[in-house]
Amino acid sequence: MFHLSQVVLGGSHLVSSQLVRQPAASLHVVEPSHLAISIRPHNNPSLTLSRPYSFIVTVHDVANNQIFLPDNIIIHTTVPEEYFLTEFATRNGSYIHGTPIATGKTTVTAVLSAVEVGDEVMEISPPLRASQDIEIFEPVVVMPPLTVLPWDPVTRPLYSVNLTAKGGSGSVGWSSSDTEVVVVTQAGVCRTRGLGSVTVTAAMTANPHNKDSAQIHIMEAVGLSLLPGEVEVEVEAHLPLHVGAHTLYQDVPLPFTACHKLPLAVEPREPSFSALPDVLPPTVEGSCAIVEVVARKPGFSLVNVSYHSSSGIDNQSQDHQLQLTASTTVAAYRPLRPVNPSSGETVLALGSSRLVVFEGGPLPWPLKPSSHTTKVTVGEGDKVEARLVKQSSGQQPGDQHLVEAMCRELGQTTIVLTVANTPSAFLPHPKKVCYCHSVT
Q1: Neighbour-count burial of 409, counting CB atoms closer than 10 A to its CB (0-12 exposed, 13-18 middle, 19+ buried)
Q2: For residue 286, which phi and psi values (nearest 5 degrees)?
Q3: What pLDDT was estimated at residue 315?
Q4: Sign of CA dihedral 86, 89, 94, 97
Q5: Quick one: pLDDT band at residue 1, thresholds 50, 70, 90?
Q6: Pairwise pLDDT comparison (70 vs 46), residue with the higher score
Q7: Across the beta sheet with 146-150, what order do the strands follow?
Q8: Where does the NUP210 Ig-like domain start and stop, copy by copy (predicted)?
Q9: Which of 117, 96, 133, 127 is CA-nearest to residue 34?
Q10: Which of 77, 165, 313, 426 is spaced 20 to 30 A from 83 at the CA atom?
Q11: SS percent in the chain: helix, strand, coil, step 5
């Protein structure tokens, strides 16, 4: 069935002539042939969790012309509520707006079944039906979202950064906003080429609008520091010092993710301390590199960590030289151990006592020697009484400790000697060392 009418806009001031045409429009009355369901935005059946979407039902004739839908038609549009939270729907059911709330596959259905004419409902037989399969995915998330790496105009370091994409369907495509600075493989491996900032994007293959990005900056260093941490170590053991460095991006300090490829110089002041040649990747948050020092004998030393570079603008001008330095005081101590008896075991007769001599452990911190503590405790029971014995000044080395042990009951127990400095502004992370000595 097909009807054609013409609607003409008329009025006392609207008169047709050869020069002026009265506004008119053709009105086609046609039978509906089929329905279609579209998705906004992007008209893609792969949806992203928690993002707003609209389902639009349209009615078409046999020539696929879209038919105007008045409010009095009745379309039953169903989006399963376990997957989709409907926030708005038009009276005639042709428009549904809301948010996906669960991942998975489901189907949106629409049925044009009737038309309201006054108080009557005229059934459409057979009703027109349409369906649209959809799949809802988690949003794509790229990790890590930010990587900041230092540039040196002399060594021109190159880096490899592994990015991962979670969420989506598991199949993503990778792209870089500037391949002159960073290129990225389809496995998410980024390789730097020079100085600059880029955005690396991972987009879901089935729905490129489900995507996320990571920022990679390769910039020159403007600041260097040593992170707070332990600065006391046994003689001949490696002491790691955690290096921090940062750049400025849009006048905001950005810490480097890694800076172990910078030519860092490590210089202990005391000759009994030396620096190891390798600069290691970071292992703690806030650090970008690790340098290590080792001592051949007990003592203290100031350690300077420095970075020197020209800016690359004018290598001959002293105005463009960069010198960054950070320093800290480190300490080395002998291992805490018994020297008399050296076996680590003491045998006492009931009621007898003896001195147990220990050596080693952290030394008194020079800027606050009063924070140094030595404590002795006894294991379970009252079999042994133990106390520290202090010799007169000048007779006892700084790392020698005397403990008097007295047998009160028969049996076996332990005495535990603990040597440390208490935390202070000069030494916020002191090392605590213990030794457990057996007493029978």
Answers
A1: exposed
A2: 90, -15
A3: 42
A4: negative
A5: low
A6: 46
A7: 146-150, 211-219, 196-204, 172-176
A8: 225-308, 339-432
A9: 127
A10: 165
A11: 0, 55, 45
Q: What domain range is 91 assigned to?
A: 2-137
Does the pLDDT of residue 183 top 70, yes or no?
yes
**356 shares its domain with 416:** yes
Residue 437 pLDDT more than 80? no
Same domain membership, residue 400 and residue 322: no
pTM, rounded to two decimals: 0.81
Q: Is 179 exposed, middle or buried (0-12, 13-18, 19+ CB in 10 A)?
A: exposed
More confident residue, 312 or 176: 176
Using the 3D structure, point to which of 333, 348, 378 is the last residue of a domain.
333
Evaluated on CA atoms 88, 91, 95, 101, the torsion sign reads positive
Does one domain contain both 80 and 203?
no
With cut-offs at 50, 70 and 90, classify the pLDDT of residue 316.
very low
Among 185, 200, 219, residue at a domain's last position: 219
Same domain, 9 and 114: yes
What is the length of the chain? 440
By the 8 A CB rule, do 144 and 162 touch?
A: no
Cβ-count burial 148-167 (b if 16+ within 10 Å, e if not)? bbbbbeeeebebebebebeb
Question: What's the confidence (pLDDT) of residue 119?
Answer: 79
Position 28 scores a pLDDT of 74
> Which pLDDT value is given to residue 248?
93
DSSP assignment, residue 426?
S
